Amino acid sequence: MKQSQMLIPTLKETPADAEIASHQLLLRAGFMRQNASGIYSYLPLGFRVLQKIETIVREEMNRTGAQELLMPAIQPAELWHETGRWDVYGPELMRLKDRHNRDFALGATHEELITSNVRDELSTYKKLPMTLYQIQTKYRDEKRPRFGLLRGREFIMKDAYSFHADQEDLDKQYQIMYDAYTKVFERCGLDFRAVIADSGAMGGKDTHEFQALASVGEDMIAYSDSSDYAANIEMAEVLTADERPNEDLLPLTEGENNEQQNRSLNYVCFKANEKLVVVYVRRDDEINDVKVKNVLEVDMIELLSDQEKQAAGLDPFHLDSEVIVLADNGVKNIVNGTLHVEETNKDYINVNPERDLSIKSFYDLRFIKEGDPSPDGKGRIKFARGIEVGQVFKLGTKYSEAMNAVFLDENGRTKPLIMGCYGIGVSRTLSAIAEQCHDEKGLIWPVSVAPFQLHIIAVNSKNEEQMALANRLYEQFGTRYEVLLDDRKERAGVKFAESDLIGCPIRITVGKKAEDGIVELKVRRNGEVIECQVNELDQLIDAHLKD
Ligand SMILES: O=C(C[C@@H]1CCCCN1)Cn1cnc2cc(Cl)c(F)cc2c1=O
Ligand SMILES: [Mg+2]
Ligand SMILES: [Mg+2]
Domains in the chain, start-ordered, CATH in brackets? Predict the structure, then answer.
């Protein structure tokens, strides 16, 4: 393509509301433009990268035998009523009414849609297992869209759904998808980790997130410095080691305590399904609400607000039997501990959890810390931030039972389909690549997803020789590579700066030495510059497009 005809509206200045590099650079390099908060147009360069990522995703999905289809973004509310999710999700689920005043949702995800399609069309075990996927626009009315495409309100997702007769078949498909995701993100040139994750409100047990490492990532990953253990911090298990001091249990007393901190207790109050929950933890540990949610086996829990706490009047020493009491493993070995009771603003000493706080059971309920032993027993834990670019779930029968999606097994018995679901944030992946692959001059696209492979620049568009050679190279290489020709009547400095900003892997500069048939090849990734004869370009380009 000739740049003089393309829509590539580069910006000199960094847009004020763009806080992170990828958001700034994708705007400055003319890859995208915002149309509303969290809503973007992919301009030609951005769209070319998007298509490259989609092609990689499609190839790896098709390789697993998954079948591509396309479902509507406008979803009848009736399906979301069947699973109860119409009322579970709040304003984040975008809704609309048609001209007959019927309710619809703008698709945030498609479990209901796909399950309704499958229950109508698939009824025998002979057709199982079956995996269906789409690459489609999703809508989630985020409260705070931010970081460009990283958290938008309209975004592109590849969402796949698999259907199985039994658990072990789902287990197999899960691994197949896990491996396919690994291929996708490797081919996209991302530095990522697959981490043990929480299934959120989706139910089902096993799930892994694919996290692209980035300091601006919203998620925190806990990984071992000596093994491949990695987990979203929400799920990283804590191994308890502290032993119990062998002291006599002293009588519970009110009073200040200025002894060492490691025996002081803290408690946090939650509500889950309208029940009150009090969770105890050592003062220097932090309660992990996702672990509490999973121990209680509820879809969501929330902290009690101060006024709710006041209203509940929770006195740890006199809780009524309705209240659920949990404690982190770290509390188990506290003897004669201390506790501050917010409600009465009193301090107590010689608090012995099992005797005084009606604690019956202990669980792993705290956040892991850097330096803790890795749960797999190998090495120590380190933290890194990540951008979640994919997630794979074992859903089980939550949706098929709610929607009566059943099949006849080989014995003629009716059973609910067992499901898995698998998502990749395609537009988020584009942003994650930009976040990982840039320098102070601009974007540095991996060859596999670059908008163009070669960027040919005629230094002086008024110079006949240079323009003639640049156009010849453009025609010649245009048959084998994706070539962008900067044929604009711009100063050389502007052309070079914008070439670095756009970030194609290889730049070919046609300058003064054009009449001697000499050009310059520059590798964007490492700045390597090679002056060469035109007839050497072929193998130089091939060599540098490989790595
Ligand atoms: O989307 C998933 C699970 C998987 C992920 C992979 C592809 C298929 N779905 C989880 N999730 C996240 N945010 C949501 C937001 C809204 Cl507003 C909603 F209505 C539903 C969901 C929702 O279900
Ligand atoms: Mg998350
Ligand atoms: Mg997720």
Answer: 25-191+393-435 (3.30.930.10), 253-363 (3.90.960.10), 452-546 (3.40.50.800)
Q: What is the pLDDT of residues 509-534, one digit of tens each?
A: 999 999 999 999 999 999 999 999 99
Cβ within 8 Å of residue 393, ≥6 positions away: 199, 202, 204, 206, 207, 420, 421, 422
Give the Å distance between the CA of 389 and the centre of ligand 1: 13
Instruction: Return all residues near 80 (Cβ < 8 A) that are at least 6 apart.
Output: 86, 93, 105, 112
Can you list the positions of beta strands (E) in 48-118? 67-68, 74-76, 95-97, 103-106
C-beta neighbour count of 290 within 10 angstroms = 19
Name the 3-class secondary structure at 452. coil
CA of 108 to the centre of ligand 1 (A): 6
Query: ipTM score of the complex?
Result: 0.99
Retrieve residue 69's tokens.
């289809």
Q: What is the DSSP string of 215-249?
A: TT-SEEEEEESSSS-EEETTT------PPPP--PP
Cα of 200 from ligand 2 centre, angstroms: 8
Atom of ligand 1 nearest to the CA of 85: 19
Q: 109, 154, 158, 426: which to mutate for ligand 1, most atoms within 8 A of CB?
A: 109
Check residue 260 and give its pLDDT: 61
Q: Look at ligand 1, atom 1, and give the residue with the nearest C-alpha.
A: 109
Spacing, Cα 219 to ligand 2 middle (Å):
6
pLDDT digits (tens, 9 = 90+) for 300-354: 899 998 888 888 888 888 888 889 999 999 999 999 999 998 888 899 999 999 8
Find, among 88, 27, 4, the residue nearest to 399 by Cα.
88
Ligand whose nearest atom lies closest to the CA of 208: 3
* Ligand 1 closest atom vs CA 105: 19
CA distances (Å), 299 to each of 237, 290, 302, 388, in order?
20, 10, 11, 20
Quick one: which of 323, 268, 272 has its CA closest to 297?
Answer: 272
Residues at CB less than 6 angstroms from ligand 1: 89, 92-93, 108-109, 140, 159, 200, 202, 391, 421-423
